Amino acid sequence: MTSPHDDVDLESPSRRELLKRGGLVVAFMWLGGASRIWGMNSSEPIDESHPLFSPNAFVRIGSDGSVHLVMPNVEMGQGVYTAQATLLAEELDIGLDQIAVEHAPPNRKLYINPLLGEQATGGSTTVRYCWTSLRDAGAAARDMLVNAAAQRWKVDASQCTVTRGVVTHAPSGRTLRYGELAEAAAKVTPPAKAPLKDPKDFQLIGKPLRRVDTPGKVDGSLLFGMDVRVPGMKIATVRACPTFGGRLASVDDTRALSIPGVVKVVKIDNAVAVIAEHFWAAKQGLEALDIHWDPGVNASFTTEQMFADLANASEHGKPIVAKEVGHPDDVKGKVISATYQLPLLAHAPMEPINTLVHVRPDSCEIWVGSQVVARCADVAAKVTGLPPESITVHNQYIGGAFGRRLFEESVGQAVAFAKQVDYPVKIVWTREEDIAQDCYRPAYYDRISATLDDNGKPLAWIDRTTGASVLASFAPVAMGKDGLDPDLVECAADLPYAIPNLRSEWVRHDFPVGMKVGWWRGVGPTHNVFVVESFVDELAHAAGKDPVAYRREMLSDDPRFRGVLDLATQKAGWGQGTSAARQGRGIALAAPFGSYLCVIVDVEVSPQGEIRLTRAVAAVDCGTVINPNTVEAQIQGGLVFGWSAALYSGITLKQGAVEQRNFNDYRVLRLNQTPPIEVHIVPSKEQPGGIGETGTVMAMPALTNAIFAATGVRIRQLPIDTSALVQDKNALKEVLSATSPVGDALEAGELS
Amino acid sequence: MLSLLVNGQSYSVDAPDDMPLLWVLRDIIGLTGTKFGCGMAQCGACTVHLDGQSVRSCVMPASGAVGKKITTIEGIGATEIGKRVQQAWLGIEVAQCGYCQTGQIMSATALLAQKPTPSDADIDIAMSGNLCRCGTYVRIRAAIKQAATGQATLPQTIA
């Protein structure tokens, strides 16, 4: 069977169609149909040690009746294992409670994500790319099992039905289980293309099925990469040069080696690791090292310098135009302009970076949770000098990634340490190292302006973003011919609004060499939707119009925008009732990752400038829903992730190094700060859109627009500086002396 | 040698007195359900019970747990309240990545043991020391209420 992904036209998508699919997808499709080169041929049988029936890369059925589904993407909380298992199981006619899932090994040929041109999980692409191909794989397997039964019974396959993995021949009342058919099914010729179910017959798709991974997450039995243990394993912890691009000059390990449990100190060019019997000894050892760094060329780099450089590039750099419509420079009228500034961000997932590696003379085995498992194998081959076929990577459940584990540099580092010893070693970064050595979401400096008609509607719109490209280092070959990284303009080039004259452009300004940048949940849209939706709000205010009415007047002809706008405003009661002083309601509207969302946030800002979120309402049209429970969870969680960043998180630099180290100075939202969040889904039969990052995209502008409604203060710089929101300076002093974060107070009380 | 009682089982472990209980559990005894998140009692992923009270095991010297009953996520299902909390967690599908959830469940169980029908303010106080980067807080709150009252306020997953 071949597996065309019918919903992805890889032949000749127009530029506009591509932009609608999302910047990263565009970028990787510019690779020139990488997916056609490698193909996603799900008919290819998987390895030798397979159970009896393995008709393709995703389905394995044993004669004992066990059904294993191989997950081409990785589970990091976003629910893809459940979604992908649902797609396979739906067509296989088996229950999610009857299957087990497995992590796919590195194998680009079998498990490539055609929207990313790589065996990768990211950009909210998973369900979008596999919606058809995994159902095809399930249907083909079912077809072969049913034909095996029909052949044994000498009946027509069309007389057979399947329920929960049992094939029934109704006229004779005979039944056979999948396990009993596995051996025979392996000999059946695969169908060219098995028919897919009519959506009205779906048994699993669209239902709030329990996730396949939650029982083990509730009783502690599920293993994350951090939890893997192998015989003879030691544990190490690392410190890399805090200054980006710096080097290890020298290290005195005398004191460290005298600590009980410390085994060895190993060095690489820019980092040192202490190997020990357990993490505690390793950490004690690390702290006992006397390390001298050669900080290199970035030794005086600061956040202030970074933004000065960005501003300079924005003013004087040469922009790459992503989209130009009409003549935005020639329109006459009232001009409104603003500058927005977004900080560097760390990912700070709950599971710090870790990699377990065993380098033997002729092989290298790795256990790590990764969004790019094939790249992990590549880097291990490169660092060890071993041939690719002698590298084994066991992917693992990931304790949150948000983009962090799209970057395998920590795996390369772990292998470089591990090849210095002959036993397996698990490298575990401290939280401090995890925050100080992240691949940071780039900072941005955006200048945006609009020329308005007499009614305050924009006749022209010019949005110039300035910042670094992640794609340029991740996949340089995927950069546009004109040097454009589409991620930079995703949701900036294509707006929900019809504006006759528009230009969206980007000035590339990379960070100093040695400073790693990375994608962060919501990628380009998180950045651009904040700017666009904040600025639309500014324009509405300038026009003296209600932010919803203003948006409604300018909406493009795509009815799905109106659908989510109507639903969210109705559920939130927009325009109804009155709000007290310093209470406000804000809105954001966008279509990231093939989904449409409208989010409305209510806040209260105290006279001292403290922000309290009191309610959030989201409406989403993400096309066909695989699991509504996951959709709701991802939007709720995505909003919390975005609010965390807007309210508290920002990475700052001093002397070329990150200043933050742990959750005390890289703060994130806590339970007591989280409002009730309603998620309303617009019923749709369209192709599935992405969902994992959408909440984060919407969170920041909905919040800051609400703060404007409450206080009249426009937030153009993140994280939010609450001192700008203070109404009563004296009251502020009292509050500052009386409060500390709830978490800290709680722990101090408990531990004293 | 330290003598520790974990989930009803005795362990004799060779560990320095100041070694945090977290690492004794994970790296010596091999109970990995208790997680490392921050190492400084900021995130709550390492929450376990000492005689029924929540503690952050990443800053709790193992020697301080000698003579006390240590309960981890691997043992909490054997308690009536712990089991109810786990059921509620499954019923409304709280977990996303799941890394922090074992700590969340330990904090929630300790809360319900103290306050069988907690108010929103009680939940705020007991749970705000447990971070969740996936942002499952809305469901954590609902699951605690469901475990407390037996009443489901949100749709339940289909198992």
TrEMBL record, chain A:
Taxonomy, superkingdom: Bacteria
SMART domains linked: Ald_Xan_dh_C
Organism: Dyella psychrodurans
GO molecular function, one term: oxidoreductase activity
Protein's UniProt name: Xanthine dehydrogenase family protein molybdopterin-binding subunit
One Pfam assignment: MoCoBD_2
Ranges of residues in domain Aldehyde oxidase/xanthine dehydrogenase a/b hammerhead: 219-297
Automatic annotation (TrEMBL), chain B:
Keyword Metal-binding on entry: yes
Keyword Oxidoreductase: yes
Name of one Pfam family that matches: Fer2
InterPro entries given in the database record: 2Fe-2S-bd, 2Fe-2S-bd_dom_sf, 2Fe-2S_ferredoxin-like_sf, 2Fe-2S_ferredoxin-type, 2Fe2S_fd_BS, Beta-grasp_dom_sf, Diverse_Oxidoreductases
Example GO molecular function: 2 iron, 2 sulfur cluster binding
CDD domains from the UniProt entry: fer2
Protein name from the UniProt record: (2Fe-2S)-binding protein
Keyword set, alphabetical order: 2Fe-2S, Iron, Iron-sulfur, Metal-binding, Oxidoreductase
Residue ranges of every copy of the 2Fe-2S ferredoxin-type domain listed in the record: 1-76
Biological source species: Dyella psychrodurans
Signal peptide: none
